[in-house]
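Sanity check

After download, print the first record. It should look like this:
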Amino acid sequence: MVRKVPPLKSLRAFEAAGRHLSFTRAADELFVTQAAISHQIKSLEEFLGLPLFIRRNRKLLLTDEGQNYWPKIRDMFENLATATAQLKSQVAGGPLTVSVVPTFATTWLVPRLSKFNKIYPEIEVRLKASDAVVDFMQEDVDVAIYYEKGNYPGLHSVTLLNERLTPLCSPALLEGDLPLNKPSDLKQHNLLHDFSTEDWQRWLKLAGVKGIDLSHGSVFSHSSMVLQAAIFGQGIAMGHSVLSQAEVMAGRLVQPFELMMDSELSYDIVCPRGFQDRPKIKAFIDWLIETVKLEQQ
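Expected C-alpha cells:
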C-alpha cells in the first residue's frame, strides 16, 4: 500500500519554523531564503488542507492543528537522525581486515598502528600478513596493501609510498679490511637479496659495475630477513628507503654510496571499487595517507 505523505522538504521547513516560531530563523538554519520557507509551509498547508501558522502582533504562532502536528514531526526527525547515526556507527565500527605484505607490516605499519587505534577505537584492525593477491569476492578482506607496479583491474587503488633503493650495510663493514669506497668494491663482499636479484641488477648497471655474479649471494625469503642479515654484518643489502628508515636513523645500517635508484614498484592501497567510501575503509585509507604526508613534511 502506497502511503500518501507530505514532501520531506516541506516537513523539514515546518519543523524548523515551528521550533523557532520564525520563518527567518528557520531559513538561516536550513541555508535557504525566507521566501523558500514560506513557500514550503504554504505547500504543506495545501497538502493538509488546513493552516499551521497564524500571525498575531508581529508574532508567528502555531494553530491548534499545528501545535498537535509539530511534536510528531519533531519526533520523526529525531528518530530519523538517531537511526542514521546508529547505522553509521555500526558500519564505521567493527573489524577491518587488512592484507599487507609482511615486511611492510612489521617495519612500517605495526609501529604506527596504535595511533590509528587511538583515533578510531571502534574499528578493530586485523592484519593479515601475506604476499598473495587478495580475491576480495572470496576472502574476508576489506583492504590490501600491495608492493606492486600499480595495475589492479576492476579495483580502486591509491599509491601510498614510493620506494628508493640503495645498498645498505652494517657500520662495522665500513671499518673492516675490505673498503667500500666505490661501487666496484662490492665485488669483494657478499650481496644479500631475496629470491629476486632484479633490483641489484638494475642498481649495478646504473652504477656502471660489471662482473658481479649475483647467483652466489645469500638468499632470504623476505626483505626483513635481508635487512637483519645486513645489520649483523653478513653482507650488503639492497635497501629500501621506506623499510629501512628506522634502522638507518638508529645507525644500525649505513649507506656507503650516494647513488639511489627509484623502485619500479610502489606501496598501493587497494580495495573493491566503490568500497573506498565505506566509513571504516575510508577512515583507514585517509589515516594512512595523512600519516605519510605528516612524516614527509
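If your output differs, re-run the checksum step. Summary of this record's structure: Residues 118 and 289 are 17 Å apart (CA to CA).
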